[in-house]
Specification:
By secondary structure, the protein is an alpha+beta fold. It has 11 helices and 17 strands. It binds fe (ii) ion.
């Protein structure tokens, strides 16, 4: 349990920048076979090899492959022995996101600010160095077993982090145009959304920028509630979902059941050309959720004029939504590991800062068809 300090309430007005974050540094996934996962991310998702840690680098406990695409870095980690913390994590959750690392200028200050506001410590500030300089990292717990690690790397010019060596795989990987992490969504248990909203507000100085309830996000059968938390400069956005009561089991319930707890539901990655990106991903075997063709019959009426050819969007089943500031194009992969848990969203923003509320109904119906096939609806 995370206790939220009284003191932080007095600080509400100055909270804006007690924790400046430059962006997402990396995401670390605990996976059952990091070598094969790295191959998937290179061949199917367009990432390139970057760095490696394992037996050959003197690491006797784990093997990590780091893959990169523009500003997105994924660390894929597996244990080399039984009875490890990572092994237990994988046994319980299957493959999933363990670490959301945040790039900061001062990892000690970020940690101290969070701790004095009631964070639960994962890792005290720790200096790590090699021939390329030093990195300071610290970490705090968030929902489920997910942690945030603060990374300070201003005195480091190595390939990734101390302990890693450059890795240049023989896989010929060509980018599919993914640029950066747009947002990352957490699924939390029924009744826990507001707790985590408060955590991000009080402990990390985030602000709630949007909320959805079951009136926005529901179908005949399932519903969810969501609040979107953003840091001061808007580079970090964490929507938090909780299930809402419906006639049948919602997608968040299904996640919580199969992940056996709270965790990261999807990672949304940005592209400048969603048509090219999705075409490329599909040709490499990535499966996406598909909305019915009728979605496109009323698209023009719903979102007004857009730059893209609707027939191309229809062919690829890319979704469109509009808000006061512009529009966005988005599409969701099917889940990317054995358990029906985590998936990716590909998003292209054309002014819109929202999350595709207008697509929720069509999407949920597509999801429910998938759930039905799995016997979980
Ligand atoms: Fe999303």
């Amino acid at each position: 349990m995370h206790k939220l300090s009284e003191e932080s309430k007095d600080n509400q007005d100055q909270t804006q920048d007690f924790m400046p974050i430059n962006g997402t540094d990396y995401l670390e996934l605990y996976v059952s076979n990091s070598k094969q996962a790295a191959y998937f991310y290179q061949t199917a998702m367009g990432f390139s090899s970057l760095a490696y840690s394992g037996l050959e680098t003197g690491n006797r406990e784990t093997e990590s492959y780091v893959v990169v695409q523009d500003k997105i870095r994924l660390v894929l980690t597996s244990p080399l022995r039984s009875n490890s913390e990572i092994g237990k994590h994988i046994d319980k959750h299957g493959d999933g996101v363990k670490v959301t690392a945040l790039w900061v200028d001062d990892a000690t200050k970020a940690y101290n600010e969070a701790m004095k506001r009631g964070a639960d410590s994962y890792m005290e500030p720790r200096e790590e160095s090699d021939d390329h300089g030093k990195v300071v990292r610290s970490g705090i717990h968030t929902y489920g077993e997910v942690v945030h690690i603060f990374v300070e790397r201003k005195e480091y010019n190595g390939i990734f982090l101390p302990g890693y060596q450059a890795w240049d795989s023989s896989v010929e990987s060509k980018s599919v145009g993914l640029k950066f992490v747009d947002h990352m969504v957490g699924n939390v248990a029924l009744g826990r959304m507001n707790h985590w909203v408060k955590f991000y507000e009080e402990v990390m100085g985030f602000k709630q920028i949007m909320s959805f309830d079951d009136k926005d996000i529901s179908t005949e059968f399932t519903a969810l509630m969501s609040k979107v938390m953003s840091n001061g400069n808007g580079r970090i956005k964490f929507p938090i979902n909780e299930p809402a009561p419906g006639k049948k089991k919602s997608q968040v319930d299904e996640y919580l059941e199969f992940y056996e707890g709270e965790g990261v539901q999807h990672i949304a990655v940005a592209t400048d050309d969603i048509i090219a990106t999705v075409k490329d991903l599909k040709s490499r075997g990535i499966d996406f959720l598909e909305v019915p063709d009728t979605y496109y019959d009323v698209l023009n009426e719903r979102v007004g004029p857009i730059d893209e050819d609707i027939e191309k969007l229809r062919a690829l089943k890319i979704l469109v939504d509009r808000d006061d500031e512009g529009y966005l194009l988005q599409i969701f992969t099917k889940t990317v590991q054995s358990r029906p848990t985590m998936f990716f969203e590909i998003i292209q923003r054309k002014g819109a800062k929202s999350f595709g509320k207008g697509n929720f109904k069509a999407l949920f119906e597509a999801l429910e068809r998938e759930q039905e096939l799995r016997g979980t609806l």
